[in-house]
Every structure is written in C-alpha cells, then in structure tokens.
Amino acid sequence: MPIRPRTFSRVFALPLIAATAVLAGCSVPQGLGPQADYFSSRAMARIYALEDGSFEVVPEIGAEGAAYWCAASEYARRALGAGWSQDIYVAKGRAPSTVSGRIDSVTFTLSPVAREGGPRPFISTFGFKPGDNFSVSSGDSFCRDIEPLPFF
Hints:
Helix content is 28%, strand content 18%. By secondary structure, the protein is α+β, with helices and mostly antiparallel strands. It has one domain. It has a six-stranded antiparallel beta sheet with strand order 1-2-3-5-4-6. Strand 2 and strand 3 (55-58) form a beta hairpin. The protein is elongated and about 90 Å long. It comes from Tritonibacter scottomollicae.
C-alpha cells in the first residue's frame, strides 16, 4: 500500500485551527466599557448595575412590560439578595439606556421612590412611572407570562 505524502493542509490545519481558537478565547474586545459587565436574566434581558445602587433593565427589542419586571425581580433576588417580599421601585421610566445606548430601558431600585402624580388605584405593568413598585415575588410571577407555550 503506497504511503501518501502529508500535505501542508493535513499537517498544519488542525494545530492552526486549535491555536486560532485559543487565541480568540483569550482576546478581550476593546471599547465595550461598562457594557461588558452585566447580569443576564431568563427574560432575555441584560441588567446593568449603576453607581447609585440602582440597576438598568434592557430587554430584547420588542419585549413586553412583563419582561422588565421579571428581569428586575430576578436580578434583585439573585444578585442583590433581596427577599421575596422586598419591593422593587421604578426609579426612571422608559428612556434611552445610560450604559448600553439602547433606546428602551427602565431603571429600578430597591430604595423607596416617591410616586409621581400621587397614589394610583392600580399599577400597569407597562406604565413604568417613577415610584411604581411590585414585590420581588410579584415581579417573578410575570416571568410565567413571557414563557413560551409548549407545543406538542
């Protein structure tokens, strides 16, 4: 049986691919700044911690209001260690993100915020007025609203 000569591609292809993969994993993207440090929620949202103790929720494009509350409750519970009865407050309603540059984000805090416009009989999950609040457990209940329905 004749021996086939080893070609350049057969000898160096695998080590070259492996070296490229290793180097690609070691490189740090430049210019991401504070965007690189975020919490990712099951609601497909990124949550950025802000310097004043508040946090900014930036869900995927076209997300429902429930996704904001779901992500905020998950971050409060997992990252900040809040209890289920702890309230989450809207600090700043829908506005451009100060961290990521996305046009639709909401800033939340665990510290009480004065309600804009006085007391309201009910809170809409889509309003996001400063001072609106839900408990962590109520916010977590919104996660069920955004889960995909299983099809058989």
